[in-house]
Amino acid sequence: MENLVDIGLNLTYFLLGVSILAAVVMPLINAIGDPKSILKFAGAIVVLAVVFGISYSVAGNEVLATYTKAGVGATGSQVVGGMLNMTYVLTFVAVVGMVYTEFHKIIK
């Protein structure tokens, strides 16, 4: 069973790497034809970095006994908390954007 979990985790890491590479490389390839699009791409990266910075600073760094067993320290706990907070914020923004878009379509 553990081998299956290891295979699943390694596959997940591989696919995550491929998706990150595609998310970074594809806009750069498309930017060759439109250099102004690099500013939009850089702006999106800056916004994500700011959201993560705020989420990281708000996250707690408490370490429970189960965290210690897994080898997670205070910094790791805070990074995970920051990522979770960032996920919550971005999900909220996406839902609000979808609701706004639908109401805007109805009003028009």
UniProtKB/TrEMBL annotation:
The chain crosses the membrane at residues 12-29, 41-59, 79-100. Keywords: Membrane, Transmembrane, Transmembrane helix. This is Uncharacterized protein. It comes from Aureibacter tunicatorum. The lineage of its organism: Bacteria, Pseudomonadati, Bacteroidota, Cytophagia, Cytophagales.
